[in-house]
Structure formats: C-alpha cells, structure tokens
C-alpha cells in the first residue's frame, strides 16, 4: 500500500516524473516541429503557417493533411520502474494519476462528439467480470479448436441474429465477427476476387477508402464509378463502364450508406443494370458495405431491403457504430457456397481458416450478444426512428439559421458547410471533406447536444463572416435545392 509521502519523497518524485497539471490532456494533438515536408512546388517554407499544408502524392497531385494543420500526437513515455518502486509505490501513483486524467479527458471529449458514427450510449458493467480472461476466437467460429478459452457460442448467436435480419437460412450462410468494418470489406471483396480472379472491381467514388485499399492489396483492376449529387452510385456511368468491359466478370461494392453523405446505393437498380448489360448471376458478385446503415435500414419503413433473397454475395456492418461497443468490431455474412474458395484446414488449430485475421477478439461477441439481447428488434427500431427524427431536426434548424444543409432519405448524416475555424472542427470532432462537413446523428446524440452545437456554430459563424465575406456555394456538393448561398437563396 502507498502511505502518506514525506516532503522529500514528493521532491524525489518530481525529479523522476513531470508533474501533470490539472488541465493535462493525454489525447491532445500538439503542434511540434516535424521534419520538412515535400511541397507542391510553391516554395512555401516548412515553418510558414498554412492551414492547408500540402504534400506531393505518388501520383504527383496534391493532398491535404487530414486535420488541416502541421501537427502530430504527443507521446506518453514508457519508462522503467525504479528498483525500489515496489516499496515506494511511486510508479503506481504516477500511472494512476495519468489514467485518472485520461478518463477525465474521455468524459469531456465524449460531450463534443458529433462527426463520426459511433454510438457512445452503452453500459457493459455486467461484463466486467469477464475482462480477466484472454478470450480468443481464432479460426472458424462454427468449428471448435484446441484453444478452449473462446466465446464461439456467443459469436454464432450474434451471426444467427444478423442472418435472420438479412434473410438467409442458417445452413446457407457463413460469417464471423471481424475486428472492424474495414475487415468486413476486405473479406467480402476477397471472396469476390477468389470467385472471379479476372473480375473487375466496381465501386463508386464515394465508397469507403477501405474498398480501394482492397483493390491495391489484392492487385485488382478497379473502375471508379461516378456518383449523383446525393452521393449514391450513378448507374448510367456504371452501365457505360460495364459495357466497356463485358468480357470480364463484375465484382461490385454497393454502399449502404456512404462515408460522407450517408447515401444509399440503389441495390435493385444496380442488379437491373448488371442484368441489362448481359451479366448473368454467375458472372457477378456483389458485396454490400453496410458499415452503419446496414443495421438501420431494416428498421426504416418503406426502405428498400438488403436481403440475401436478392443476388448478393455478402454484407458487412460495424458493431461499434449503431450497436455501440467499447472496442471496434464488425459482422461479415456471406453465402456458404462462396466461402469454400477461401477455406483451408489448419492442423495446428484443429480448425478451418477462412477469416482475414488469425487471432480474433473474443470479447467483442460478448458485447454484441449482450446488447442484441437487451434491445432486440423493437429496441433498435425505436433508436433508428429517434436518429432519423433528430437528424431532420438538425437539418431544419441549420437551414433556418441560413446554413446550407442536406439530409439524404434513409440517412441520419446531415451535411452542411465546413466551418472556417479548424479549432471549431476539432472541438466538435467534425468529419470534413472539401467545403462540407457532417454530423452523424447516433442514438447517443440528443436534442440538447444538437442545440448546444447549433448555438455554438451560429455564434462562431457570425464572427467568421462579420467582414462581409460570404460562405462558399455548396451547389456542387449538396445540389442547388439544398444550397442557400446568395446565388441560390
């Protein structure tokens, strides 16, 4: 136990460790000198203040730093314990102090979380008793392995729940709980590639970056398809690209909610386009990236169905988004007949390998199983309705304040003009692209939080444009009907 410390002990600790101030923020992104970066040839110095620093990409074009500032994350050093630490308890006291302040930071930052699709409203206290075990679901979730500390029964229960949601019989599907939504996309596209080694991957330009990462990783030929203003795939451009490549099978990523605009690709129109271009069902593979809306859409009235009754090959969702989970995870479901192209027996595990990763987090299935049981279909339906209602509220209030805003049908992602101040963007943790930003309304986003954000935005905006300058025209991003700049008012 650590008892009271004498003054000389406190001084000794001060020499060993930097005393943390009350406003210490372990997650802060701080401005520190970085090695000189490549420029786009403008001759800008490294030290020059530039809110949109550019670097040369492999293709020779320019790209902006994500945060718009020349910053990087600070480091909390890992140091060796002193030889007498077990008696003094100095290191334990230091670490306890760091963690306490870190928790305080997390609580504070959670209050201002709006730009990313994570449901932060969950309570898993009942599962704390299981955190002392190294639970690993390596291998096929449907086959027992030699490693006995696993949660496969919970994992299969979760998979069965999603199989019912997407209308595929228990004996007709295969799936597993992934480490994140990206892994679901990597797996779905890999199955398509293995089925059609010479196939071309088609994905809209607003698909998640992991889709194009998959194309690079698997050395696939990839066609980027144009999108409509809404962000959904332009099936006329898709048709042109299909007809130009009729001799090769098609592997298609369909977005059930795009990353920035929350647009839902028209699955029925995509299938119709494939068929009209002469692609029979045995010459195409469709992976549905449902990271967020793949779980929301089944609970939206009159929404088109994402179902295995249609000729799709796989569906993936994120588990830490709409469901809410303290660690990233996801669910990937594909047809049993397709998984054979990936499956290999592994004697070492006494199991089968058909997943992307080897070791898999065995705690994630417990969290998902717990929430699915607590909420059920009716609980999720109520949360979906709440999110859509609050998203419409935010969109209407933004427009009332004279701010261009767009909300796609079936979506809870509200797109609006990008705030001019990067500090404001960081404070509210907004996701930005070009001249637009978005708020993703999740179950943990209340009307009170939206009102706080709106008040803050309107107050700051009055300062940003007090010199008479005008906000940017967003017609190219959200359409003329959603843009209320001076030209389109």
Automatic annotation (TrEMBL):
In this record, what's one Pfam family? Pyridoxal_deC
What are the GO BP annotations of this UniProt entry?
A: ethanolamine metabolic process; L-serine metabolic process
Q: Which GO terms describe its cellular component?
A: cytosol; plasma membrane
TM spans (from-to): none
Does the entry feature the keyword Lyase, yes or no?
yes
Reactions this protein catalyses? L-serine + H(+) = ethanolamine + CO2
Per its record, how is this protein called by name?
Serine decarboxylase
What is the originating organism of this protein?
Answer: Eutrema salsugineum
């Amino acid at each position: 136990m650590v008892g009271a410390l004498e003054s000389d002990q406190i001084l000794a600790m001060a020499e060993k460790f930097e005393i943390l101030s009350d406003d210490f923020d372990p997650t802060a992104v701080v401005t520190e000198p970085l090695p000189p970066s490549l420029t786009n040839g403008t001759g800008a110095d490294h030290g020059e203040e530039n809110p949109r620093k550019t670097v040369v990409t492999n293709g020779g074009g320019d790209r902006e730093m994500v945060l718009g500032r020349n910053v990087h994350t600070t480091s909390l050093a890992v140091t060796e314990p002193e030889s007498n630490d077990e008696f003094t308890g100095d290191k334990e006291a230091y670490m306890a102090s760091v963690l306490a302040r870190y928790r305080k930071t997390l609580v504070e930052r959670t209050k201002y979380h709006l730009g990313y699709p994570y449901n932060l409203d969950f309570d898993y206290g009942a599962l704390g008793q299981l955190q002392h075990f190294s639970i690993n679901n390596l291998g096929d979730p449907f086959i027992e392995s030699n490693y006995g500390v696993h949660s496969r029964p919970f994992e299969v229960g979760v998979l069965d729940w999603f199989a019912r949601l997407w209308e595929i019989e228990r004996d007709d599907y295969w799936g597993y709980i992934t480490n994140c939504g990206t892994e679901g996309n990597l797996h779905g596209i890999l199955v398509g590639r293995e089925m059609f080694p010479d196939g071309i991957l088609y994905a809209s330009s607003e698909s998640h970056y992991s889709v194009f990462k998959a194309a690079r990783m698997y050395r696939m030929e990839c066609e980027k398809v144009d999108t409509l203003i809404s962000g959904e795939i332009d099936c006329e451009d898709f048709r042109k690209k299909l007809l130009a490549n009729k001799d090769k099978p098609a592997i298609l990523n369909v977005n059930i909610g795009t990353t920035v605009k929350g647009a839902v690709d028209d699955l029925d129109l995509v299938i119709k386009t494939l068929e009209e271009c002469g692609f029979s069902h045995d010459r195409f593979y469709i992976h549905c990236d449902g990271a967020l809306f793949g779980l929301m859409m089944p609970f939206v009235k009159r929404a088109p169905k994402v179902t295995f009754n249609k000729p799709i090959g796989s569906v993936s969702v994120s588990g830490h988004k709409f469901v809410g989970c303290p660690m990233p995870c996801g669910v990937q479901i594909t047809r049993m007949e397709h998984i054979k192209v990936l499956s290999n027996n592994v004697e070492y595990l006494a199991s089968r390998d058909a997943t992307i990763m080897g070791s898999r987090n065995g705690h994630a299935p417990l969290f998902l199983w717990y929430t699915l049981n607590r909420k059920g279909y009716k609980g999720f339906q109520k949360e979906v309705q709440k999110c859509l209602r609050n998203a419409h509220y935010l969109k209407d209030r933004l427009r009332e304040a004279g701010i261009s805003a767009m909300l796609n049908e079936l979506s809870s992602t509200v797109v609006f003009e990008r705030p001019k101040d990067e500090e404001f963007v960081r404070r509210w943790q907004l996701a930005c692209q070009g001249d637009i930003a978005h708020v993703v309304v999740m179950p943990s986003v209340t009307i009170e939080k939206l009102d706080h954000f709106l008040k803050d935005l309107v107050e700051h905006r009055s300062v940003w444009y007090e010199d008479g300058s005008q906000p940017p025209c967003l017609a190219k991003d959200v359409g003329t009907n959603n843009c209320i700049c001076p030209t389109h008012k």
